[in-house]
Design goal:
By secondary structure, this protein is an alpha/beta fold. It is about 40% helix and about 20% strand. It has two domains: about 160 residues, P-loop containing nucleotide triphosphate hydrolases (Rossmann fold, 3-Layer(aba) Sandwich); about 260 residues, no CATH class.
Length: about 425
């Protein structure tokens, strides 16, 4: 190994020189997935953590490694950052493992390869490492589903466990605050007093690294304009033709760029719920950002004056979607998030579908209620599908009523944890 590479590895792994140095020495916010990811059942599988940049993948991976070492299931950690050219040049053959074990005197190590999609052939490399059947644990992180799917997953079928790591949920943070509606839930942003600066950096890194450097998008200015347009129209049915007209590109390009935004964990598309009823809209999806902070940064609008923001309703609706999606991911739940809309303009913001016996409508109304009043659309959905439970997310109203044998819970956004407690029981997550 070259001296420069050895020096870089020691800098990133100070615990290799002294066991007194902890792997983690910064504030760690516990993640809900930790317990399941630490199950001994996965010790012989490669662990692949995917998700957006700065969502906490590396932090969680190091925490998992530290716990595994404390439990004597493994001995030490070797952390390798693929953002470094010297590391990428070294990781071209599985022989690096034996070279590392000899150079750094490793026994039964955990090898953490960060941003693995930066490698030329990460899937082949990890497969070759697995074929060696060494007494090691491999953890890889990646921030581009598009790159990982083509470069990693097809080579590790049956050999790896993949977990999606998203920005912090309200359950993990502890409370829902107005600041999360505006600045989002990236861990570093949540913990910092300089939220604006950090969000700018996260957004710029995404454009510079994921969009330009890694995915080599030829028109990054078009991508940035598209992100802003989607931010403006979030929560509405996607109009591909209008987006193409506004960006001066083809509809095919718009669809391709939106697919890239999804594969890099920036947005998610929500498809319509279609039962056996006629006159339901079945075509275009609705797009939501995975994080409100990223969305607001793309619009250069980080104002905390919620009373004067025209998009406050959308911010709350987006936050509810994000929390529903995080709940699904973090609790390993098996349900799909839809919206419901008919040709006569009846609509429900979200419909959670597990099976025909478990359908849950959720409506977001960020306003004050004096009494529990449901919308005509919500009643129409209850009459059509007879769900056991339904929910209204409100500004400050909490109440439970019965509508046509459906228990409808009004829950204020500040008490959204109650929603997930009830959902966990009904969805059996």
């Amino acid at each position: 190994m070259k001296d420069r590479l050895i020096q870089l590895i020691y800098q990133a792994n100070p615990w290799l020189k002294s066991q007194q140095i902890p792997i983690q020495h910064y504030d760690y916010i516990p993640r809900l997935q930790t317990e399941k990811l630490l199950s001994p059942e996965w010790d012989n599988l490669w662990l692949v953590l995917v998700g957006p940049r700065q969502a906490g993948k590396t932090t969680l991976a190091k925490h998992l490694a530290q716990v595994l070492i404390q439990q004597r299931r493994f001995e030490t950690l070797l952390y390798l950052n693929c953002d470094l050219l010297e590391v990428r040049q070294w990781l071209t053959s599985p022989l690096f493992i034996q070279e590392a074990m000899d150079t750094f005197h490793l026994e039964k190590p955990i090898i953490l390869i960060d941003e693995v999609q930066r490698l030329e052939n990460p899937g082949l490399l990890l497969k070759a490492c697995a074929d060696l059947k060494l007494n090691i644990k491999m953890i890889a992180t990646g921030s581009s589903q598009l790159e990982l799917k083509s470069k990693v997953q097809e080579y590790l079928t049956g050999r790896h466990l993949q977990a999606l790591i998203l920005p912090l949920s309200y359950q993990e943070i502890g409370d829902a605050h107005d600041s999360q509606l505006v600045f989002g839930c990236y861990p570093a942003v949540v913990k910092s007093s300089e939220k604006t600066i950090l969000l700018q950096q996260i957004y710029q890194d995404y454009i510079a690294k994921d969009i330009i450097e890694i995915l080599k998008i030829g028109k990054p200015d078009v991508m940035q304009k598209l992100i802003a347009l989607v931010a403006h129209s979030s929560g509405q049915l996607v109009n591909y033709n209008q987006l193409a007209t506004d960006c001066l590109v083809s509809v095919a390009t718009i669809r391709n760029y939106l697919s890239i935004l999804e594969s890099t964990y920036t947005i998610l598309s929500v498809t319509p719920f279609v039962g056996n009823k006629r006159k339901e809209i079945t075509s275009n999806p609705i797009l939501y950002f995975i994080d409100n902070g990223f969305r607001n940064q793309s619009l250069h609008n980080l104002s905390m004056e919620l009373d004067t923001r025209q998009d406050v309703g959308l911010l709350v609706q987006s936050a509810v979607f994000q929390e529903l999606y995080k709940f699904k991911v973090q609790h390993f739940c098996d349900f799909i998030i839809h919206f419901w809309r008919t040709q006569s303009s009846a609509e429900v913001d979200f419909v959670l579908y597990k099976n025909t016996d478990c359908i849950i409508p959720i409506e977001v109304k960020f306003k004050s209620f004096n009494s529990p009043v449901i919308t005509r659309s919500f009643r129409s959905f209850i009459d059509a599908y007879q769900p056991r439970y339904g929910f209204f997310i409100t500004k400050d109203f909490n109440k439970k009523i019965l509508v046509n044998n459906c228990e409808v819970n009004f829950i204020s956004i500040s008490r959204i944890a109650n929603l997930f407690f009830l959902l966990k029981n009904d969805l059996k997550c």
